[in-house]
Write a structure and sequence with these properties.
The chain has 2 domains: about 140 residues, no CATH class; about 220 residues, Spore Coat Polysaccharide Biosynthesis Protein SpsA, Chain A (Alpha-Beta Complex), CATH 3.90.550. The chain has 13 helices and 11 strands. Strands 3-2-1-4-7 form a 5-stranded mixed beta sheet, with helices on both faces. Helix 1 packs antiparallel against helix 11. It is of the alpha/beta class and about 375 residues long. The chain is globular. The longest helix is centred in the first third of the chain and has 38 residues.
């Protein structure tokens, strides 16, 4: 029995040290990203752009998010809001926005046809023909952007090799503990993985829903939006298909903010499982490699299994140091998340929850989305 516990502790310690190495690489990737952002010369390129948002119900801080897009320090752009339901409550906020900003080009596009199981993409596909400009920017309805957001995103297109631009984002937590745990995970875990993927894969080969900027020509080359109406991870697919077509997917240094709801633990679990099973389905090798990203949890487990063995506590101390450094460097240094330091004490909980989600994600391919249940197969949604 003692030998078995020692072996388990040894595995946990090795995984913890692997986690420490991973967090060290994330710090390196974050430093590379910051250095590149500080040294790059911004091109004066600001083409007219159509911003498209698909609406479905109300989100936290939604009007503030809408307003931030009307306060852009940018030349010519329009805001298009699409809704499949003419009585969608978000349309009332759009009407309020039109009254507050009468000089902005703000239009509502009614999208009554259901083209597939992904309602967001279905709406966007019907909006696209109504966009009057060649450059398109799609982002979620809860995204809050700084006044220089459009300038920093669109200048990336001065490089003709760039076919899509995406951005990092931080979470604005709600009042509940699960909401704070998710925000902490975004700023200290998920975005670190994005930055590391940028370095290890020679660039970003996917997009994030916080910002998807491209052109009608590129969308036409990759088949448009219609083929994605049954995909769960439409943002990932758009970026992957753009990269496969030979274009660069640029990661801008503009960081936006997404407002997180006041999750219950059940809602939080469903949201995390939806993300986890989609990533496992689309990038299985990389997803299995996430085992080392739970290094802090492995270190704690090693210490609990074999508390009298010195090397378990050494492994825990090493991984805890690297985990905290990575959280501060990425959360504060890159994302400018003011709440990371406040919530650092939640890191062990965050990592144990993430480990539980990772393990549970292998138990099937069912997800819950907007109150409906689906299966994910080859990235596509199937009704259960």
């Amino acid at each position: 029995m003692h030998l078995a516990l020692t072996m388990i502790a040894a595995v946990c310690a090795l995984l913890a040290l692997g986690g420490a190495a991973y967090f060290g690489l994330c710090v390196w990737a974050a430093a590379r990203f910051r250095r590149a952002s500080e040294t790059v010369a911004r091109a004066e390129f600001s083409p007219p752009v159509s911003l498209m948002k698909s609406l479905k119900g109300l989100d936290p801080h939604m009007y503030d998010a809408f307003r931030s897009h009307c306060l852009q320090d940018y030349g010519e752009y329009e805001l298009l809001f699409g809704a499949s339901d003419p009585s969608d409550p978000a349309l009332g906020l759009v009407a309020r926005l039109q009254r507050e900003f009468p000089r902005r080009q703000i239009r509502v596009v009614h999208c009554p046809t259901s083209l597939g199981l992904n309602g967001k993409v279905s709406t966007l596909a019907q909006m696209l023909p109504q966009a009057q400009y060649e450059h398109i920017l799609i982002n979620d309805s809860d995204i809050v952007a700084a006044p220089d957001y459009l300038r920093r995103v669109m200048c990336c297109f001065a490089d003709e090799n760039v076919g899509m631009v995406t951005s990092l984002y931080r979470g604005l937590a709600g009042r509940t503990l699960p909401s704070r745990v998710e925000a902490l995970g975004l700023s200290t875990d998920f975005m670190g993985g994005v930055l590391l993927a940028r370095e290890m894969e020679g660039g970003v080969r996917f997009a994030l829903g916080a910002t998807i900027a491209t052109t009608k020509r590129v969308l036409c080359e990759i088949g448009g939006l219609e083929p994605l109406v049954n995909y769960l991870g439409d943002d990932y697919e758009l970026g992957a298909r753009t990269a496969a077509a030979g274009y660069q997917v640029a990661l801008t240094d503009a960081v936006v903010e997404t407002a997180l709801p006041d999750y219950t633990w059940r809602e939080f679990w469903a949201h995390q499982m939806r993300w986890a099973r989609n990533v496992r389905d689309r990038r299985p090798a990389q997803y299995f490699g996430l085992i080392v990203t739970f290094g802090l949890a492995w270190g704690i487990l090693g210490g609990l299994v074999a508390p009298r063995v010195w090397w378990t506590w050494t492994a825990l101390a090493v991984v805890a140091m690297f985990r905290i450094i990575a959280a501060v460097v990425i959360g504060r240094g890159v994302l400018n998340d003011a709440l990371v330091l406040r919530d650092l004490w939640l890191l062990p909980m965050r990592d144990f929850v993430a480990l539980a989600v990772w393990l549970a994600s292998f138990a099937g391919n069912e997800i819950e989305w907007r109150g409906l249940k689906f299966r994910v197969r080859d990235g596509k949604l199937e009704r259960t």
